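As a warm-up, study this chain.
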Amino acid sequence: MAIKDEAVKVRQGEELNIESVAKFLNENVEEFADIKNLSDNLVIEQYPGGFSNLTYLIKVKNYPIGDGIVGDREMVLRRPPVGAKIKSAHDMVREYKILSSIYPVFPYCPKPLAYSEDESIMGCSFYVMNKISGVILRKEMPPGITLSKEQVRSLCEKLIDLHLELHSIDVKAAGLDFIGRPEGYVSRQVAGWSDRYRKAKTDDAPDFENVMRWLEEKKQPDTDRPVLIHNDYKFDNVVLNPETLMEIIGVLDWEMATYGDPLMDLGGSLAYWIEKDDPPECKVLQSIPTFMDGAMTRREIVERYGEKSGRNMDKFDFYYCFGLFRLAVIAQQIYKRFHLGFTKDKRFGLLIHAVRLLENMSLKVIEQSKL
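Now compare it with the structure written out below.
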């Protein structure tokens, strides 16, 4: 069985028009400008994972590689989900421009190729980028792959160290300060995500009012060292070298990247980090293999990040609680789309259970916090 992420048949209702995609590539990506009848060799499939933007594999078959050799030229197309109404959460043009600025200084991100705001093509904005081929670790390890405790530990350390490398980029020198305003960042995040939750709440969802009140009361001041933050940095958004599995070669999904507090970024990452010894009910949130023998604990990650960055981690309860709350908001926004019938993906219907669990986890952090 394959150990790489495999694209599959496009889900019903989320199909793309091959002719339209071929025409866009002809007109906007230089390497395809002179290829006639491109649609004849175009294959479009969809990556089944993820809950937010739709991601497609665009494959050009019989593409001239060189010296008379032909093969498959693979790219990735991203577009908002069908029925999405939250433009700020699905801003394809912004994501494309961010990739264009980050790629020269952080080549782990995919190279962007072209974007379009012309809704006549597929009813929304979208963009195309190079595909980074490798292994992505998800809920379960790929078939046939086993890692020792030492290897798992090493991968965790590399994940955190690359996060630190991302946070060390000189934002202004890279021309990336257009992506956000670090002044008032924490306050805006607490207020903004609270507003999003209230707007996305359905009758069967918890109200989170106690959590939102605590976050408002305990919100931390602006950092004096703002950085480029990914805002969705985790194992299933990094690509591993398929030959060794011990080298990170790519970082994906930059849709929420901005300029702000790195501890907010780390808190968001650790919201996904389910440990082996967490209560059994937490398994519903398990989306990455952080439960494996040898995996670092959340506490160890916080300690390593603090030691290597020189940042004070004493108030991290706030950042972790906010990360849990933000994850709940994202899940609730997606669940509401299912609730209203905008998507038939049954995975989305199960997210209400995750929202309820995340409220309980947030309240537990608050109960045990000394802030």
